[in-house]
Protein 1
Amino acid sequence: MDATSQAVAGKALRADGATPLLVVDDVTLQYKTADHLVTATWKVGFEVHAADRYVLLGPSGCGKTTILKAIAGFMAPVAGSITLAGRTIERPGPDRMMVFQEFDQLLPWRTVLGNVLFPLLVNRRLPRAAAVDHARALLAKVNLSRFEDVYPHMLSGGMKQRVAIARALAMEPAVLLMDEPFAALDALTRRKMQEELVALWEEVRFTVIFVTHSIEEALLIGNRILVLSPHPGRVKAELNAGHIGFSDMGTAAFDALQRRIHDLLFTDKIETALEARHERHS
Amino acid sequence: MNDIAERTLPPLRPERTVTLDAMGAVGDVARPLGPIERLTNITAVRRLAVLIVLAAAWEAYARYIANPLLFPSLTETLEAFWDAAARGPLIDRTLTSLQVLAGGYAAGLALAAIITTVAVSTRVGTDLLSTLTAMFNPLPAIALLPLALLWFGLGAKSLIFVIIHSVLWAVALNTHSGFMSVSPTLRMAGQNCGLRGLSYVALLLVPAAFPSILTGLKIGWAFAWRTLIAAELVFGASSRSGGLGWFIFENRNQLETASVFAGLLTVILIGLVVESVIFRAIENATVRKWGMQS
């Protein structure tokens, strides 16, 4: 553990009496397109504790997916640091399993069971027989036991995402990273998946960082919500939503928090629109 | 304005909820097709019908011109085929050809695997591969035969050299473009699972690019087979056991036209078997089963 991460950990300890699992410390992220160097996030900092359902919420362009990719180890921060249990993240690894939005994250040449087994076998986590048992248990948890010998192309979108979740959870990652995993699903399936995910969390108590642009989804899934502003992504607010769940939908508390986040995001949009108009006139 | 809005309102109708009938009232949900329709849905059956028509046309035309020296009939060809296969050297010649082909094909694949692995891991490698394939892909392998004869002399070595040339670039080009078109999500998912270096290539890129690789293998095979027969037509008498091309050439010299036809038939048959039996079986067991190709 280097000096900075120790200092950060110490600070957090004083602040709320527990050591954070993941520390994102003033991280600036940039990526290159064909002709631009884009700053995706600017000095974004937050802490995730064990068993958090931590939601990164913001409009497109706020760099929430880029932050998730940096935590996953696919890109390095230009400034700041990301540490998991005190160690700086350097490369992708199965301790930070990721569930993507796209359905093609599954290996089409492997069955449902084969997909869940894949990371277990690649990392030699368990002997084969034990790995199969473990994978089957995970598939049972996401209600896919009947489909273990089916190839991914025969599954519906929701089932594919459940396989991806089972595959990620099978590795028992320190943090589960989810990049808008339900965004490409139809509304009914999405609601069902949200409920299943929270039920699964109740059972397993994994730590998850969940990226979404839906305020409602953030409220239903998260216990803590980081609201980000776009171009570049900066922290706008960090809110608690652990007291709000599916049974609170339509209540005054739910609506109030939803309205509060909406205002946080919306005022920002008005400002940018005004700025843009101002720039055009000058 | 208001008037129009009022006039275009849809009528208010009563609501309704329906208790669904038992399925028996609906009748069959799915019904099997008739036997003739099912039969004509089988590709093999339709292809066979085409083949029978072509064979009949051949036989009729050959009998009409009645000149076995120039155009033997199907029956004469089949007789010569049977004769050459049972008593003559046809089987031997074919085996010789296939042996050389297998050697050259395997060597070509191995080289292609090495080159694409290097190409996919470094940018210089990618540029090298692109330049080499751009240069050598349009060059017909048979054009290298004179040079090959100069370097390796008459014999299997020269044949293998031209076969490698015909396989290597087609397979390398298709494999590399297959690697390049693997979706970013799948790449990230693979790295996320802990794949790196060679295991990343072998366990993720190769299966993910398998449709393209298979296309490359098919093109490579077709190139190799044609190149081999053509090369054997040019020489092949050097060693005691010539190949199929030599069989054709030999019989033409002796004006055994029916045997020439039998040799050509063998070339076609082997081509068909490899295309529609071997490669089809590989396709069915892989890319079709995985839903990566319809």
Protein 2
Amino acid sequence: MNDLVVARPEGLYCPPGDFYIDPWRPVARAVITHAHSDHARAGSGHYVAMRDAEAVLRIRLGNIDLQSMDYGERIVHHGVTLSLHPAGHVLGSAQVRLEHGGVVWVVSGDYKTQPDPTCPPFEAVRCDTFISESTFGLPIYRWQAPEDVFADMAAWWRANAQAGRASVLYCYAFGKAQRVLAGLRDAGATDIGALVCHGAVQVLNDAYRRTGVDLPATHRVSDLDPAALRSALILAPPSAAGTPWLRRFGQFSDAFASGWMLLRGARRRRALDRGFVLSDHADWPGLQSAIAATGAQRVIITHGQVAPMVRWLEQQGLQAAGFDTEYDEDAAESAAESATESGR
Amino acid sequence: MRDFARLYVELDATTSTTAKLAALKRYFAVASAADAAWATYFLAGGRPRQSVPSRLLRECAVERAGLDAWLFEECYQAVGDFAETVAHVLPPPRSSTPTGLADWVARLSTLRGAAPDVIRERLFAYWDELDWNGRFLMLKLIGGGFRVGVSRLLVTRALAEHAAIDPKTVAHRLIGYTHIAARPDSGAFTALIAPDADAHASPGHPYPFFLAHPLLREVATLGDCARWMVEWKWDGIRAQLVARQGRCWLWSRGEELVSERFPELDAFGLALAQGAAARAGTVIDGEIVVWKDDRALPFAQLQTRISRKVLTPRILQTTPVVLLAYDLLEHAGKDVRHLPQFERRALLETLVRDADDPRLRISPLIELATWEDYALLREQSRRRGVEGFMLKRHDSTYGVGRTKEDGAWWKWKIDPMSVDAALVYAQRGHGRRASLYSDYTFAVWADDGVGQERRLVPFAKAYSGLTDEEIAQVDAVIRKTTVEKFGPVRSVTPTLVFELGFEAIQRSPRHKSGIAVRFPRILRWRHDKAVAEADTLASLNALLDEAGSAQPG
């Protein structure tokens, strides 16, 4: 077996290069696909990540030994040629391309194939073996065009503002919130009212701006007088739901932006007024087209709908298998958001 | 369909009763009477017979979606709802038509009994002209109705406010409206909201059942017990016997006509209706129970009888039923629900005495001096095969449904039996709990004898009693401790202990544990207990002995 990546208890490991990719336990050398907390964990000796991920990584992991790379830049380590390529998931998210002895492997991390104004689009990288996520790897998951989702979101916000009611939109503080801000700006919705961000979101907005991403003006709650809040859109992490922090908004309408909102059961479980189906992961057609575009004959699935995707890929004549990993965006992100909540 | 789909989306999207009421009234204001007739039917809980067999419907959906059967099954497991799964996987529609709800119901009814290839062709054509919400609802209608978080009471209110009439009138007219074989048309809807009182009521209509609230506070707070009428809370089927114009109707609380299931009561009612005294009209409220050797038998006995398609003479002989009468709603053709409880009771006692028939028994009043005496006697409930006491204020009128403010009727039930059990299997839930492991199988320890290792024996399934937050926590544990997956079911390494409550317990040769429990539910999560500390089969057997009356089913 000359596999370029194997699953070890610490994480995905590249034996010839002697480094890990997105390890979930502390290791000597870690290549990080993106800064969501289930992929970027604390405690490793040396980190390698895409340049645009640096600001967020420093917020979350503090003063780490970090080596930054640009997309497409190549470094050679123990004979393994390593380069990073856009994954379209969040700012600074990268696929990791490994080449050794004429064989190419790509580790996708998390990715999406839909456009996102806050990060460069997913780029298909030809390889022999593709290690893919499969968060939404079932045919039920097919996303609407994002501009339609933002138009719905703007209509909801506008109706609330006209009724003198604040709009509270829950979304991941890192990635989703910034995509929503840019998406609503592109939908021409920023005249409806002020954009207010929870402290955990605002910290990340600033990181995006420092990295050169253009976002519309956002405010902290304390910057606005109560009257302005009644027409405002408030972006808050899901962990803020049900907390006293929300009391200041009086009567408000609430919504959640997530791919999980596609299912009626998930919407009703949260007992929210609206669920907007907006995901930073590839949907079923997106996963299929991404996998096909790599030309890989062997595909390994790391997380999400592993078993159905493996079976489906095998039916397509590919060699497919699953890796046992500890990637869980929901749990890890809510912990990270709680940690930065003091920054409100 | 589009108006109804919009209404559905609005109802589904909000948890506010005010908002739901407003949405319903908006719909009734614009819908045609024919469409509103069916909307009322479905929203009030009507479930027509399924018009396409499930298996054929699934095959057509899988074919149209272009999926392998196994992949569709995976999708269904993730979604937890068949109609929603299909709506997600079908290819986009090609056109859209303004066909209304009533026309859709008519179209779908043509599918019943049609040849499979005809059904297939029509389904494909229908799906091609419906958007996501339309398809979802259409599939729900084929499957026989749906739930949307609207109570019958709320529909009643919306109709009453829409038509500016008394909600009680609407409630009365709605009885029987949602019968499985009903085909409500524009005339039925017009009659439902007509201004005049009883112009369209059929002679067989019962009254809306008055329902009791569970007593959650101290019984002493009800004041002097002499002001209350106390009866056993029977564990049978609540029913109204309507005898009018020489005919008889027996209605269950689900407003289902059950006359045919209980021919002996039907025959009694017929005799009553044809007797001189009652010809003008008599309506009795009571409980149907299996009665033998001067006592009520456990509900399980009644259940075996209900589940039979054909009632053989032998069944009628081994499980004879009686109506335990506890209220009189119509006397000599007059609605007496406004009379105080004690006056209705006096009329009822006279009626039962005069009838002098073993099939009609009075539910006796229990008269004791103090609430303490009642509490003491209530301890015997289980042995007597009852669920506790019913408390009825002696001067109360007979209300409609479960009214909030009125503390006229209370059910003072005994605490459920309970054991601590370990979670051993989990299955994903449906509807609101889709994709979460929320349906559990529980086990207790069985000791196979000296020298044998004890093992966990499954004995009950339960899926209610936890908060959403707890379900999410349990779900996470299940995913981490999974040992094996069998389709939608996972076996886990037992790590969690829950206190399970249930209403009744009896021996059952069909269960591995040899025991069957009724209405099992989770009372609380025993964070403080390890699996080794879960209860044993011996403790269940002790409850069985305590229950005493339980017979082998």
